[in-house]
TrEMBL record:
GO terms for biological process: negative regulation of DNA-templated transcription. CDD domains: RcnR-FrmR-like_DUF156. Belongs to the FrmR/RcnR family. PANTHER family: TRANSCRIPTIONAL REPRESSOR FRMR, TRANSCRIPTIONAL REPRESSOR FRMR-RELATED. It comes from Cupriavidus pauculus. GO terms for molecular function: DNA binding; metal ion binding. This is Metal/formaldehyde-sensitive transcriptional repressor. Gene3D superfamilies: Metal-sensitive repressor, helix protomer (1.20.58.1000).
Length: 91
């Protein structure tokens, strides 16, 4: 069973909290709040996204990479795929 299915409710709860934080950013902008208030909301949201990424990434490594067999010819290696995902995140 995939860890995202196993921990589905916890992950969905995190996503819903992030959505609430994004809504708070939108409200702050609509209400013409000060720059510091908006920046604080953005950094909180970014922290929550990083936390979600860390949880999913850690479980992915534990479940799919620790004992992963090398890719067969013509298949993508799970390690290479993960490296590409991480690289795209930091672009």
């Amino acid at each position: 069973m995939s860890h995202t299915i196993q921990d589905k409710q916890k992950l969905l709860n995190r996503v819903r909290r992030i959505r609430g934080q994004i809504d708070a950013i939108e409200r702050a902008l609509e209400e013409e709040k000060g720059c510091l208030d908006v920046l604080q909301q953005i950094t909180s949201c970014r922290g929550a996204m990083n936390g979600l990424l860390a949880v999913v990434l850690e479980e992915h490594i534990r479940c799919h990479l620790v004992d992963a067999e090398p890719a067969r010819e013509g298949q993508s290696d799970a390690r290479d795929v993960l490296v590409e995902v991480v690289r795209s995140y930091f672009k």
